[in-house]
Amino acid sequence: MDQFLQYAKIKFMVDKRLILVYCLVYLVWGLGMNWFGTFMEIACFTYWWQVITCYILYMVPISLLLRNRPFHEQYAYGLIAMGFLEFGGYALQTSYAYPDNLLDKFFGGRTFALGMALFFALYFPAGNWLVGRIYDRIFPKATQNW
Length: 146
Prior knowledge:
Layout: H1 2-12, H2 16-39, E1 43-45, H3 50-66, H4 71-91, E2 95-97, H5 102-107, H6 112-120, H7 123-138
Antiparallel strand pairs: 1-2
Protein name: DUF2809 domain-containing protein
Organism: Maribacter flavus
Keywords: Membrane, Transmembrane, Transmembrane helix
């Protein structure tokens, strides 16, 4: 555990502007996905503010821990993280899956949460890539610390 805490401490020692970019990107991304899920009647959060708790307070720290790792590691660890999040969300009913939604029709109802976890695990490598590109463009001289 001590080894992990040392690793996390190093990974969290980043430019505060980088954290701001992560928070803004993930907030917009989360609001957009929640809107899309509601519009398409696939799934949504029970409360709008869950975008903040899930995307910023949960996913941003995990993204920071996984940044600069190979794609397959980010996806694999992201799958574990999203599996717990999806399971918890539907078990506690803080997320709502629309009955007979598109994914249920295509894949079957018993695979919904697994499908969501498999999809959303891509957020970690994709988010790290996107935030890195945005950060590099806005703060080109700061990328030496990235």
